[in-house]
Amino acid sequence: MDFDQVDDAISQRVQAMKKRLGDLRKADLYYYNLPVQELRGGSRVIVNGQEMGMYASYSYLGLVGHPRINAAAIKAIENFGSGTHGVRTLAGSLTIHKELEETIAEFKGTEAAITYSSGYATNLSVISSLVGRGDYVISDKLNHASIVDGCLMSGAKFIRFRHNDMEALHDRLKQIPEGASKLLVADAVFSMDGDIIDFPKLVELCQSYNAWLMIDEAHSLGVLGKTGRGIEEYFGMEGTIDIKMGTLSKTIPSVGGYIAGKFDLIDYLRHVSRAYIFSAALPPAQAAAANEAFKVILDEPWRIEKLTANTKHFIQGLQERGFDTMLTETAIVPVLCGSDEVAFTMTGVAHHNGIFVLPVVSPAVPPGLARLRATVTASHEPDEIDYALNVIEKAGRSVGLIQ
Ligand SMILES: Cc1ncc(COP(=O)(O)O)c(C=O)c1O
User: Fold this and answer.
1) Is the pLDDT reported for residue 146 higher than 90?
2) Is the peptide bond before 363 cis (omega within 30 degrees of 0)?
3) 247 and 257 Cβ atoms separated by less than 8 Å
4) Phi and psi for 195 in degrees, rounded to 5?
5) Is the distance from CB of 121 to CB of 257 less than 8 angstroms?
6) Is 119 in the pocket of ligand 1 (CB under 6 A)?
7) Which of 102, 111, 173, 383 is the one with CA 20 to 30 A from 33?
8) Looking at beta carbons, which pairs linking 74-77 to residues 24 or more positions away fall under 8 Å?
9) Angle subtended at Cα 250 by Cα 247 and Cα 252, rounded to the nearest 5 degrees
10) What is the pTM of this model?
11) 191, 220, 224, 252: which to mutate for ligand 1, most atoms within 8 A of CB?
């Protein structure tokens, strides 16, 4: 069947997207899925043949391409090959999976850990394994899509509260019938805005209302806390999260997701969560790379200090130039543009001047809050950051966003 010959809802959806993408491509404003051809050190990439400063990376500590991590991946391929024989439950769990899970548990200060083949699959599968019909799942309005999808899939009553608003959360908790099972899920650092959840108040509310607490540390692992262990360390509140979720695709330069927690929780998930039971495990190279990366974080603490200094430098530089960086305190730095058009045009100017940064527009963020979503990492040098700031300033002036 051809989409322009059938007039049903599926066709209309596909055609609407085709038009939106076609308009952007015609105006030369389509910047997604660009071919990154090569990594040049930690902070530069070759895109479409042009060398650019990388400001769209989640490799917050600059670990992608680290020689120790690369070597561990190569050795794992030599020992185990490139695949895993299939599902761990039936095809055998590789020793490198066990090692990785022990490393994660130790790093996160828990009894045990389990890994999945992506962070997305982790949230989907774990939330829907823990709650179901008759239960309540409570989620911050700006939580990542994988959390939202996990909540919807679970069949539990899905309650959302205004972003990072603890009074709104309190109101919601009060409305839940006493005795009902409750799971509260939140990002530690929000992926589009870079702000940090009000963790002390969140923990207090969970404890008073007997809600289980699950925190997604996709953007806080390696970023928050003196040793990069995440939000509990940042607030000095170790041992307060029941279900510690994280990804292996950001600070940890691999792929995959994990849950760390009590042994009973992990054993339950290992025998119930469908993304573990019905999906192949992490490839050996990726498991070994992730395992080594946790060790590098501990061996090279200067990376966390440098990331913190670079983050301050970048945010301050943008604010001094008159940009609105919203409420970010972390390495995810939104540069508020307002309209999609301004965001796309500024992206063009940035790319033209050798800065690789991408626009985020509706529906990923609310209409009118389009932005450049820039990230800074431990690989950037201060003079590189100054150059990026000057380019973004030039882009902002070109559209009249700043004077
Ligand atoms: C907060 C958050 N959770 C989960 C995920 C999914 O992780 P992954 O990309 O490892 O599937 C992301 C990805 O961007 C994220 O930002």
Assistant:
1) yes
2) yes
3) yes
4) -85, 165
5) yes
6) yes
7) 383
8) 74/285, 75/288, 76/284, 76/285, 76/287, 76/288, 76/289, 77/284, 77/285
9) 80
10) 0.96
11) 191
